[in-house]
Every structure is written in structure tokens, then in C-alpha cells.
Write a structure and sequence with these properties.
The chain is mainly α. It is built from seven helices and no strands. It has one domain: Globins (Globin-like, Orthogonal Bundle), CATH 1.10.490. It is 52% helix and 0% strand. It starts with 11 loop residues before the first helix and ends with a helix. It binds protoporphyrin IX containing FE.
């Protein structure tokens, strides 16, 4: 089996910055996903994601934000929403010409949080702090159909 590439060999921080920009452009343009980010600045979430993924790919550990489970406990993340996000992630990796190894490792990392972030019902949502608000957002087309 060939040796696992280092973070730098995978394109390092410049590659992650490029990919996260393309990815969040898609997220912020999407009529369902973007509603989760109404109060979040795109430049900030891009930076947080680059820092987070850098650690996950073996780069320098600089991420000091919340871990995925506490960061998303107030959001009603269904498997449809998760799959949609994964699809945009894959499209972004293709658009920036990421290598097969980088693509495989990022998709694997992303999927490793699925069981912990996907909720079966809104009753599984928990506030992060007392005055927090739940993010329970129906898929826009479903709202129209109802
Ligand atoms: C459909 C699934 C997801 C949705 C809707 C979502 C949405 C969000 C939103 C809205 C924030 C900003 C929270 C805030 O600042 O108030 C956030 C933060 C974050 N997300 Fe996600 N996310 C999803 C999946 C993931 C996955 C799979 C990962 C990791 C692989 C991830 C990693 C992060 C990180 C690292 C932060 C920053 C956390 C912090 O320090 O506050 N997210 N996400």
C-alpha cells in the first residue's frame, strides 16, 4: 500500500482555503442550507473550517473552536440535509481539482461525524446556552408542498 501523503503534499492550507471558499459559496447560495448561516459571516466560518480540516488532515493543530457535536446541538440536521452538504462538498473538491487522496480523506472525515450530528427528531436538539435558539428549518420545497 502506498504511503499516506502529508498535509503539505495534499496541497496544504492554500488548497483548503480554495476549497472552503468554493464550498461555502455553494452553501450560502443554497436556499435551504443558507438559512442555517443567517447570523454567521462567511469569512469566519470559512476560516474555522480550514483550521478544523487542517488538524484532521495532519496539519498544525490551530483549531480552537467548538467540537462538531457541541457546535451543532441546537440544529435540526436531518440525513437529507447532511447528504446535501456532502454533495456540495464533493462538488467543491472536484471544482478545485483536489487529488483523489485529498478527496477520499476529506469525504471520510466528513462522513465520520454523520452519526453524531444527524438527529432523528427535533426533540434531540439542545440549546448551547440558555438564550440560544433552535435552528429547525424545513426544506423550502416541502414547505410549499404542505
Ligand atoms: C448539514 C450539516 C451541517 C450544518 C447545517 C452545519 C451548520 C453549521 C453552522 C450554522 C455553523 C455556525 C455555528 C455558529 O457559529 O453559530 C457551523 C459551525 C461549524 N461546523 Fe457545521 N454544519 C454541518 C455539518 C458539519 C460537519 C459535518 C462538520 C465537520 C466535518 C462541521 C464543522 C463545523 C465547525 C468546525 C464549525 C465551527 C464551530 C464553532 O467553533 O462554533 N459542520 N456549522
Amino acid at each position: 500500500m502506498s504511503k499516506k501523503k502529508t498535509y503539505e503534499e495534499l496541497g496544504g492550507r492554500p488548497m483548503l482555503e480554495k476549497m472552503c471558499k468554493v464550498f461555502y459559496d455553494k452553501v450560502y447560495e443554497h436556499p435551504w442550507l443558507n438559512q442555517f448561516f443567517n447570523s454567521v459571516k462567511q469569512e469566519i466560518i470559512e476560516l474555522q473550517q480550514v483550521d478544523f480540516l487542517q488538524g484532521g488532515l495532519g496539519g498544525k493543530k490551530v483549531y480552537c473552536g467548538k467540537l462538531p457535536v457541541p457546535a451543532h446541538k441546537h440544529m435540526y440536521i436531518t440525513s437529507e440535509l447532511y447528504q446535501l452538504r456532502s454533495k456540495l462538498l464533493l462538488e467543491s473538491l472536484i471544482e478545485v481539482d483536489a487529488s483523489k487522496e485529498l478527496t477520499d480523506r476529506l469525504i471520510k472525515l466528513d462522513l465520520s461525524f454523520a452519526h453524531a450530528l444527524i438527529k432523528k427528531s427535533t426533540s434531540e436538539c439542545e440549546k448551547r446556552y440558555n438564550s440560544d435558539e433552535f435552528l429547525i428549518i424545513p426544506e423550502p420545497n416541502m414547505k410549499k408542498a404542505a
